[in-house]
Write a structure and sequence with these properties.
InterPro entries: EF-hand-dom_pair (IPR011992), EF_Hand_1_Ca_BS (IPR018247), EF_hand_dom (IPR002048), GRAM (IPR004182), PH-like_dom_sf (IPR011993), Rab-GAP-TBC_dom (IPR000195), Rab-GAP_TBC_sf (IPR035969)
Largest sheet: 8 strands, antiparallel
Subcellular location: Cytoplasm, Cytosol
CATH class of the domain at 781-908 and 943-991 and 1044-1089: Mainly Alpha
Number of strands: 26
Pfam family, one: GRAM
Shape: globular
CATH superfamily of the domain at 781-908 and 943-991 and 1044-1089: EF-hand
Strand order of the largest sheet: 17-18-19-13-14-15-16-20
Strand content: 5-15%
CATH architecture of the domain at 781-908 and 943-991 and 1044-1089: Orthogonal Bundle
Structural class: alpha+beta
Radius of gyration: 37 Å
Domain EF-hand: 851-878
GO molecular function: calcium ion binding; GTPase activator activity
Number of helices: 44
CATH topology of the domain at 781-908 and 943-991 and 1044-1089: Recoverin, domain 1
Helix content: 40-55%
Length: 1090
């Protein structure tokens, strides 16, 4: 690697370098302790220095210096990890520089020319690198050490590196932490003790910041059941954010593809940078806080004051700018924030340059005044340009539209334009009962709030807004406020007519999702009048079907029907659709998929909060998994499934304002309210009964809904035995006791627990696969565990360095356990070459192809773990007969015949079409699936008599395969002689059989003349007629088959059994544990980018 020329004084080198080559202008040196004659005390000291000091000139084993005659000053211009690399640089200097230097008169001119040339080479290298680092020179040096120490594939992208201490036991090791796209690496070398650690991000179970008595603050990593601690980090928070981002990126890309969204900064694993990861982390926080679409990225942040008209003072905060939104959040504890869509901005004014202020005018004759903005001129120009781009004709007419129903103009007549509650329970204006009066008072409070804080998309969100939410939202405003708080109003405004198009496109489609939707339609709030009529059922069907069509990865999941039915009660149909989008894709990520990962993660977060806030309950119930199972429905349905509908909607109000934090707070309040009863219960069933009775007793005393609309409680008969609880009081108590839980802490806990949840699911899959496979193989459980890890790692290796790897499609968590991870041929070939028992086999690639074709039973071009293990089990622990039978079958279709590839491709196409039917939008052919399953169960054990005969071409190839397998073995010569002897013996037997058949006429060829009964029997066993050979093996033409011969497996087996050398070779035990260990070490190094 060429280095930026740096001056070095050899007087101060302490003899740490040995000169290998030199000439008039250049010196090639080797570091003491490396290469020939290295080691000793000098080597230990040099190695320690190389690890602790941060300079490649002190680390690389080889370097080239430039000097001029009679000068004590030397310039380092190149370094290398290997001798071959440095020799290439040396040869280049000899061929391209040395001749030119002779024309210069002065030493200064020589040095200037060399330095300029080297800088030019570095600049050319920099042009080929698409990613610019903050300090390219220093980063290049670090990358050199990274490649030298860890020997990872050259495609692996180093993201950043830090100096830190790694705690191995109770002793800290000072070294360097390297964070790359796919691996966490650490290296330390102190006085001969080398510590090297390489952990892939997909192996992490825990990643968290911790502190204890010894370590004030450190980063804890759990992988492979081992704890790793990294401390003494200068920028610990920055390091942790990068690690968290890399782990999350790896988990999403490799395990949780349903939620994986391509980010501009993360689109290519070869181009991920520290800067990109930090920007992505900030954008995630920005989108989560302001409830913005996933397409929005944080572009600029400006510190400023915002004039708050209702409080008559300036509040300090930050302006956050994205592609389509201008947002502000206070930092002085006032909990004030505002979201302004660029489409609502009509003008930007700069009234006073002295105060560095600007005024943003929005529709509805409102303005926001920002002051003390450092770069206010550029900010004003940016907002103007973005408004000009984002403004569109369809939005200009909605300036005074405070009901926020943008997009309804294009609605189809088939789409309901009224909330179901207004249809089935219209409010009686003249009704003056106490509940209706209280409802009117709530509406009045909100109208006052709107007059002070604004109404619509640019409304101020303050502490007072939350107080009004906690007290309960009036029925008439619920739909509008849900749209506003969730951000769904912005989605609908920017996608006019989208829902109507979806409804039309999805109309009449028949998929697995639509079948499930039809089944659950009448289970959605069946006691509510709205869903006892076709109006409500049809609206529910349209919304769920349209969403399944929009997002086929989620499709339809149970609990979506319950949530959507409540949304339809208070929002118009199109609004309910966009609310569902906001919930499924932003507010409750990964909830509504096949593995409900998001709900499991939030349950883990809930358990952490129970430990932190309810220690008495934890002391009594050490196993908190009970609360996870009980609370699953709380999270999936936002308490709608356990609370009466008139109470549940109050919970939904809080959820749309505060997100999952509101559900967690309420869950803690429920457990706290029932603390004494839960502590005194004796088993889980009793605890479930206590909680069910409590939920049945929850009421909403302020609800204006009539009894016909209110949900009947399951435990009404026992209601008198339990004191009723008002939902508003319960929610208020939840905010008072647990309102200090911060949304940022919840999001951090989500990321931390997501690693553990996904790895737990993966571990469950592994245990189930091992349990199934162990019944058919002779490997031990620990060996199967290691084999599974190798198999899974091989799958990931083909995904690490490319975004569009077809191998990513081979992992589908929704399939049966055995089918979740599968290997294509390239992946299988690399893994098989590491594990096959014949270490010196010279035709590994060809043999791998034949084995792959043979064990790919369904011929779909993929191998599952069971197929892989059964093949290895035969080759490792099978009898001589079974091993020979396996090799024999390799040379029969579908093993080595070229023409069979066409058949395999056709079969793959059929399987692909079947898999599309099973997983896509087509219906599942259950009859075909069950028939295939029945055939597998009834499949009988194959005997050697069932094997077809091997023809001439196949037998020759079989013999070659044996020669190649024996190549390099210590008994190679005797094995070759044995194969030659068997081959000649079989050929002589065939020749005898052929001569005995020659005198007979063609019609009587099956009964040779002049033979005894015994000879006749022997001949029939040793040879077949051309027709039978042709039918059983290669299907060649009759004329060709008359000149060919063939052998049965019994003949080959009998002949080889007479050769002790061959028998002992195949019966030689294989050290399986050693093989697995070697494969684990070599797997990463054997990776090739194909």
């Amino acid at each position: 690697m060429w280095l930026k020329p740096e001056e070095i004084l050899l007087k101060n080198a302490f003899k740490l370098w040995v000169t290998e080559k030199d000439n008039e202008y250049f010196v090639l040196q080797r570091r003491r302790g490396y290469g020939e004659g290295g080691g000793g005390l000098t080597g230990l000291l040099v190695g320690t220095l190389d690890t602790v000091l941060d300079s490649t000139s002190k680390v690389a084993p080889y370097r080239i210096l430039h000097h001029t005659p009679d000068s004590q000053v030397y310039w380092s211009i190149a370094c290398g990890v290997t001798k071959e690399e440095i020799i290439q640089h040396w040869d280049w200097l000899q061929q391209n520089i040395m001749r030119t230097l002779s024309v210069f008169d002065s030493s200064e001119d020589v040095t200037s020319f060399v330095q300029g040339k080297i800088r030019g080479l570095i600049a050319e290298e920099g042009k080929t690198c698409l990613v610019q680092e903050d300090d390219p020179e220093k980063f290049r040096e670090a990358h050199l050490r990274f490649e030298k120490w860890f020997e990872l594939p050259p495609e692996e992208k180093l993201v950043t590196y830090y100096s830190c201490s790694y705690w191995k036991g109770k002793v800290p090791c000072q070294g360097w932490l390297y964070l790359s796209t796919n691996f966490l690496c650490f290296y330390s070398y102190l006085l001969g003790a080398e510590v090297k650690l390489v952990i892939s991000w997909d192996e992490l179970w825990r990643l968290e910041k911790t502190s204890n008595v010894i370590l004030t603050e450190s980063i804890h990593v759990l992988a492979h059941g081992e704890d790793h601690y990294f401390s003494m980090l200068l920028h610990l928070n920055e390091t942790f954010v990068i690690m968290e981002q890399l782990a999350d990126y790896s988990i999403k890309r490799l395990f949780d593809k349903e939620s994986f969204q391509r980010e501009p900064a993360l689109s290519d694993p070869l181009q991920i940078t520290k800067r990109g990861l930090e920007a992505n982390a900030k954008s995630e926080q920005f989108r989560t806080f302001f409830r913005l679409p996933k397409e929005e990225n944080l572009l600029e942040v400006h510190e400023s004051f915002l004039w708050v008209p209702f409080s008559h003072f300036n509040t300090l905060g930050k302006i956050c700018l994205s592609e389509n939104y201008l947002c502000f959040a206070s930092q002085d504890g006032s909990q004030c924030h505002v979201i302004i869509p660029m489409r609502e901005v009509v003008n930007v004014e700069k009234p006073d340059s002295s105060s560095r202020a600007l005024t943003v005018c929005v529709r509805g004759k409102r303005a926001l005044r920002f002051s003390e903005v450092r770069d206010y001129q550029r900010l004003a120009n940016t907002i103007r340009s973005r408004c000009g781009i984002s403004a569109s004709p369809q939005h200009s007419a909605s300036s005074e539209d405070v009901t926020l129903m943008v997009g309804q103009k294009d609605s189809s007549k088939a789409v309901s334009t009224e909330a179901l509650m207004t249809v089935f329970h219209p409010q009686d204006v003249e009704n003056l009962d106490p509940k209706m009066l209280k409802e009117k008072m709530k509406e009045q409070s909100w109208n006052i709030h709107f007059s002070e804080y604004g109404r619509g998309t640019s409304m101020f969100f303050t502490r007072k807004t939350r107080d009004l939410i906690v007290r309960g939202v009036p029925e008439a405003l619920r739909g509008e406020l849900w749209m506003l708080f969730s951000g769904a109003v912005n989605d609908m405004a920017t996608h006019p007519g989208y829902y109507t198009e979806l409804v039309e496109q999805s109309l009449g489609t028949s998929t697995l999702a639509t079948d499930e939707i039809e089944r659950d339609l009448h289970r959605s709030l069946p006691e509510h009048p709205a869903f006892q009529s076709d109006t409500g059922i049809s609206a529910l069907r349209r919304v769920l079907t349209a969403y399944a069509y929009r997002n086929p990865k989620i499709g339809y999941c149970q609990a979506m029907n319950i949530l959507t039915s409540v949304l339809l009660l208070y929002a118009k149909e199109e609004e309910a659709f966009w609310l569902l989008v906001a919930v499924c894709e932003r507010m409750l990520p990964d909830y509504f998929n096949r593995r409900i990962i998001g709900a499991l993660v939030d349950q883990a977060v809930f358990e952490d909060l129970i430990r932190e806030n309810l220690p008495q309950l934890v002391e009594h119930m050490t196993d908190l998994s009970f609360f996870s199972s009980v609370s699953l429905s709380w999270f999936l349905t936002l308490f709608i499934s356990v609370l009466p509908i008139e109470s549940a909607v109050n919970v939904v109000d809080c959820f749309f304002y505060d997100g999952i934090k509101a559900i967690l707070q309420l869950g803690l309040a429920v457990l706290d309210y029932n603390m004494e009863a839960l502590i005194s219960c004796h088993d889980d069933a009793e605890a479930v009964t206590i909680l069910n009775k409590f939920f049945d007793s929850v009421t909403n005393k302020d609800s204006p809904l009539p009894p016909t609309v209110q949900q009947a409680s399951v435990g009404n008969n026992d209601k008198s035995s339990h004191i009723s609880v008002d939902i508003s009081e319960l929610i208020r108590e939840a905010y008072e006791k647990y309102g200090n839980i911060r949304s940022e802490e919840v999001e951090s806990s989500r990321k931390r627990n997501k690693l553990y949840v996904i790895q737990t699911l993966e571990d469950t899959t592994k245990q189930n696969v091992i349990r199934v496979v162990s019944q058919d193989v002779r490997f031990s459980a620990s060996q199967l565990d290691e084999l599974y890890n190798l198999f899974k790692r091989q799958h990931f290796l083909s995904c690490y360095w490319t975004m569009n790897s077809p191998a990513l499609l081979h992992h589908d968590p929704s399939l049966a356990y055995l089918e979740q991870y599968q290997l294509g041929f390239q992946q299988f070939s690399m893994l098989f070459s590491l594990l096959e028992p014949w270490a010196f086999c010279s035709i590994k690639s060809t043999l791998s192809l034949w084995v792959f074709r043979l064990i790919d039973e369904n011929q779909d071009g993929l191998i599952n773990f069971k197929e892989f293990c059964c093949a290895l089990d035969t080759l490792y622990t099978g009898s001589f007969t079974n091993k020979l039978k396996f090799l024999f079958k390799l040379h029969l279709p579908p093993g080595n015949l070229i023409w069979h590839t066409k058949i395999m491709l056709k079969t793959s196409e059929k399987f692909l079409s079947l898999s599309i039917k099973l997983t896509g939008r087509g219906k599942v052919d259950l009859q075909a699936y069950l028939k295939q399953w029945q055939n597998e169960i009834l499949k009988k054990e194959e005997t050697i008599k069932d094997l077809p005969r091997i023809n001439q071409t196949q037998f020759i190839q079989f013999s070659k395969t044996l020669y190649n397998i024996f190549h390099g073995d210590p008994e190679e010569e005797s094995l070759y002689r044995a194969v030659a002897h068997v081959t000649s013996l079989l050929l002589r037997m065939e020749e005898v059989g052929r001569r005995l058949q020659e005198p007979s006429s063609p019609p009587e060829s099956k009964k040779p003349a002049n033979t005894t009964a015994g000879e006749e029997s022997s001949t029939e066993e040793s040879s077949t007629t051309p027709e039978s050979s042709d039918t059983s093996s290669s299907h060649n033409s009759q004329d060709l088959s008359e000149t060919e011969w063939s052998f049965s497996f019994e003949q080959v087996l009998a002949s080889l059994l007479n050769e002790p050398a061959i028998v002992s070779f195949f019966e030689r035990p294989v050290d399986i544990q050693m093989k697995l260990g070697q494969a684990k070490v070599a797997q990463l190094k054997s990776k090739t980018n194909k």
